[in-house]
Write a structure and sequence with these properties.
The protein is an alpha+beta fold. Helices cover about 40% and strands about 15% of the residues.
């Protein structure tokens, strides 16, 4: 042995010849035990049930469009594999065989232009297809007995908007004799320096010129303000699956309003519980939940300056402590959406489109959870 090779070994030439034909299909190139196969099976099952919905969205005449099934699969690939832009997604579809296989493209199929893909995708999502897809994925989980109908948890997070602080400017209809001091700055060009010190910027007097639906908000007193939306998720406590998604303007008590709305959707003939962090410990919200027959298992806010409505009548029950343990699972939902998915900084503008993209992200999260639960 010399250097790890046998003495009589013959060196193989590093040839550069191109192979023009292949007798191995793209299906055969994806390993049989690859985890993406289970995901594609779930996705295809959901899309098959949506065929009539796609038919209603498209005209019987006109030029051919990108198949809606391929659009949604491409969007899911972008979420699953953290592809940061549509242009990069289209580029990878040109040479990544696994991406092509998942989307439903053959090796010789032409790849769409990035702009064409974006326009077709946005037009598709405007038809509430994201909500329909989310519902089909959830229906599959219910058929497998993976969803609880009694115990839930709610949580909210700020989704950063695709707009800079400099775009947050005074509305045209705002009176010019307002007490606010206009921002001073230096420099010229498309990105000049701006000093906002001393200027009071509020959502009622200012708006983003880039994304008018975005609002200046912050999650806590110790965090800085940013332009964004408020995303809300309702999780069932059995396996941590998302059962409802909402996206609202990040103003006032939007978290409480969304929690009450989602709780109203799950109430039924039997009593249900709703867990949440101490940010939901509000007298108005707790009274509303109790009036609709939902038992609040909200974490108690022990701040010394206020009295919590969560007292011994609630905390004495063992189920309350179980809910407190289970509610931490909800942090994984938005945590996954912001580290793997595309929710850390939204690359789309407008409340409706942001809601659709958020819904697709949480549908993707459910797909991974369902696959993992079915494999155990």
């Amino acid at each position: 042995m010399v250097g790890g090779f046998e003495d009589d070994a013959v060196r193989t030439k590093d040839t550069k010849q191109q192979v023009f034909f292949s007798y191995k299909s793209i299906e055969d190139r994806i390993p049989k035990d690859h985890p993406i196969r289970a995901l594609k099976k779930l996705v295809d099952e959901a899309l098959e049930k949506m065929s009539k919905d796609f038919g209603r969205l498209y005209s019987h005449t006109g030029r051919p469009s990108i198949p809606p099934e391929q659009l949604l699969r491409a969007l899911l690939i972008q979420i699953f594999f953290s592809v940061r832009s549509e242009r990069q997604l289209v580029e990878q579809l040109d040479y990544n065989m696994m991406f092509r296989w998942f989307v439903g493209l053959n090796l010789d199929d032409d790849i769409w232009d990035a702009t064409t893909f974006t326009k077709n995708r946005d037009r598709l999502l405007e038809g509430e297809i994201a909500e329909r897809f989310f519902a089909e994925v959830l229906a599959m989980a219910k058929m497998q007995g993976l969803v609880s109908h009694e115990h839930f948890t709610v949580d909210g997070t700020i989704i950063e908007a695709w707009a800079s602080q400099k775009s947050f400017q005074r509305k045209k209809e705002t009176s010019s004799d307002d007490d606010d001091t206009p921002p001073s700055g230096s420099g010229k060009g498309r990105n000049p320096d701006v000093n906002y010190r001393g200027e009071k910027r509020r959502n009622d007097t200012h708006e983003s010129k880039t994304d008018p639906d975005a609002r200046l908000c912050r999650k806590g007193q110790q965090t800085g303000a940013q332009l964004g939306y408020m995303g809300h998720a309702l999780m069932e406590n059995r396996n941590g699956l998302v059962v409802d998604v909402r996206v609202t303007h990040a103003v006032g008590k939007s978290e409480h309003s969304a929690a009450a709305s989602m709780a109203s959707a799950i109430r039924g003939k039997h009593r249900v519980t709703l867990g949440g962090d101490k940010g939901y410990d509000s007298d108005d919200l707790l009274d509303e939940l109790r009036n609709m027959g939902v038992t609040p298992h909200i974490a108690k806010n022990d701040h010394e300056r206020r009295t919590s409505s969560i007292d011994n009548r609630t905390t004495r029950h063992e189920g309350y402590h179980v809910s407190q343990k289970k509610r931490k699972l909800v942090e994984q939902i938005f945590g996954w959406g912001k580290t793997v998915g595309s929710l850390r900084k939204m690359k789309h503008r407008g409340l409706d489109l942001v809601k659709s993209i958020t819904t697709m992200n949480l549908a993707a999260y459910n797909l991974i959870r369902i696959r993992n639960l079915m494999m155990t």
